Amino acid sequence: MTGNKTALILGATGLVGQALVRQLLTDARYSRVICLLRRPMPAAVFDDPDRKLQPMVIDFGQLQDYEGYFTVNHVYCCLGTTLKQAGTKAAFRKVDFEYIHIAAQLTRAQRCDSFVWISSVGANARSKNFYLRVKGELENAIMRMPLLHHATAVRPSLLLGARHATRPLEDLGQKLAPVLRKVLVGKLRKYRPAYASEVAAKMILQQRF
């Protein structure tokens, strides 16, 4: 029997996003899974026997105009890019800070039960590293947002999985992953490379049912 919870996903076509959609479509607690997308998604990407999936193409540059889609129980935000993909620091910040921050605001406006997003291990608003600084600034901005119920950041290290784009450093990490996952224990465990499916499962665990 299918439950009555509804979910909204931003960033459904990314590495973690795809893993998350697959898990939600098989989660009996959810009856509807809405995905906000930049471009149409082929129907064959996901197995959806219960017809829970509702993909919607929107203009993320006008995300605030789509508040109606946030009338759900749980919001999952898997948005993210890289400096190389974005091209400039301003473009990177637009995706990794502005879009996610607006999504949190819309979640609050619709009084959703919870908001979970992907940050990064080492996120720190005072970091000298631009990537980690933006992640830290976003965490501070969201966690200090009044009346936003149950907001949680999931902080993975290197993400493991098949990507379309080539990332030399991450490709090296993929090769070393089996060793790193064995030696990074105790306090170092948070730096372990994580499979996208593991991060997706952790995001679901943070939600309130």
UniProtKB/TrEMBL annotation:
InterPro entries: NAD(P)-bd_dom, NAD(P)-bd_dom_sf. It comes from the Bacteria. GO terms for cellular component: membrane. Coiled coil: none annotated. Pfam families: NAD_binding_10. SUPFAM superfamilies: NAD(P)-binding Rossmann-fold domains. Residues 11-134 form the NAD(P)-binding domain. This is NAD-dependent epimerase/dehydratase family protein.
